[in-house]
Amino acid sequence: MSSDNEYRLSFATRSVHAGYDCKANEGSLNPPIYMTSTFAFDNVEQGAGRFAGEQQGHFYSRISNPTQEILEARLADLEEGEAALATASGMGAITATLWTLVGPGDQILVDETLYGCTFSFLEHGLKKFGVDICYADFTDHAEVKAKLTDKTKVVYFESPVNPNMRVIDIEALSVLVKDFSTSITVMVDNTYCTPALQRPLTLGADIVVHSATKYLGGHGDLIAGAVVGDADIIQQIRLFGLKDMTGAVIAPMTVFLILRGIKTLQLRMERHCHNAQRIAEMLEQHPAVDQVFFPGLKNDPWHQVACKQMDGFGGMIALELKGGREAGVRMLNRLKLAKLAVSLGDAETLIQHPASMTHSVYTPAERAEHGITEGLVRISVGLEAAEDIIADLDQALAG
Ligand SMILES: *Cc1c(COP(=O)(O)O)cnc(C)c1O
């Protein structure tokens, strides 16, 4: 956080302005898109200085670019971190960070349920390189405590968890981990909330990662990611995880679109939250629905934790129908307005079936073990009028 902030602008204002000064750019209201791969040096000494990190300035767009720098400043500001790194995808952010933080013999302790490709990267990827992947139910603090070891380097989780909507107490978890060892990095995937609803760094986490493909971009027209944390670790991730290990570089045009999306982030999140609350309440009453997983419902097991750490309950809902997987498939095939599609955080309501789509990289046995039921349906509630989404769900459920 900036230290000279007697007068701190509100989140909505910073979403529009942070990190960009139009006076420094010919008065251009929107940031210029620097379509360049390389940067010319004044002389050899300057080039050498930039490569050595002794001089400020860009040298090659696989490391940094002036357009990208604006997005990074804005994201760092909104997440209340020192620095940020924008990447080509959410997976680019997650993998660049973990390649930087761990090596053979180290342990990563993760929540039992993760976004499918994150799980696959750890279980089917990093494990092959001698990294120990250990799972715990992060809503059970005693279990987490029991699984921390002197080999633990990173503690990683999402909240709310994709796709089953458990909510993990970020502050309690961070305190517990730091009590055990201050050298363990607490890393949170904040994709579901965005900083408009939840700021994990202010709750004790060390690193936040995002799929900016989702709410940050907000319009379903790009793939991107980001990492936010202390300046020194972000610099390490940039110069190793990004530059050498993944090359997951974001394109300047994509940066521009995310900056545009973020200007309306708070407005959009308010509407997503409002719509999701109404839809979750409708589904809870529906005779075809067995269970609704949404932290905004009063009797959701995670409601209290969500109230404590989130500024709104978000736009994601999971549900289980009474007829299980078969009933879910029938409902999905009957949708008219909502799109049957993976991804989330778009203007359009998107509905999908995790077991056969986003979480199909888990084997059936792994899904059973990791809390992803076969009948689970996931809804990313869009920005349409709530009554129209409700009518569509109603007719699909009536089938
Ligand atoms: C989509 C998603 C990712 C991966 O992001 P990409 O931009 O698709 O690479 C990671 N975590 C969560 C929670 C996601 O929803």
Task: Write up this protein.
Helices cover 39% and strands 15% of the residues. With 399 residues, it is α/β, with parallel strands linked by helices. It folds into two domains: 11-263, Aspartate Aminotransferase, domain 2 (3-Layer(aba) Sandwich), CATH 3.40.640; 266-397, Aspartate Aminotransferase, domain 1. It has a seven-stranded mixed beta sheet, sandwiched between helices. The chain has a five-stranded mixed beta sheet with strand order 8-9-12-11-10. α1 (11-17) runs antiparallel to α9 and α3 runs parallel beside α9 (252-263). It is globular.
Q: How much strand?
A: 5-15%
User: Oligomeric status of the shown chains?
Assistant: single chain
Bound molecules: pyridoxal-5'-phosphate
The total count of strands amounts to 12
Question: What is the radius of gyration computed over CA atoms, rounded to a whole number of angstroms?
Answer: 21 Å
- Give the fraction of residues assigned to helices: 25-40%
Main β-sheet description: 7 strands, mixed
Outline type: globular
The total domain count is 2
Name of the CATH class of the largest domain: Alpha Beta
In what order do the strands lie side by side in the largest sheet? Answer: 1-7-6-5-4-2-3
- Low-pLDDT runs of 5+ residues are none
The CATH topology label of the largest domain is Aspartate Aminotransferase, domain 2
Number of helices: 14
Q: Looking at this structure, what is the CATH superfamily of the largest domain? A: Type I PLP-dependent aspartate aminotransferase-like (Major domain)
Helix and strand run: HHHEHEHEHEHEEEHHHEHEHEEHEH
N- to C-terminal distance: 52 Å
Mean pLDDT: 96
CATH architecture of the largest domain: 3-Layer(aba) Sandwich
The computed structural class is alpha/beta
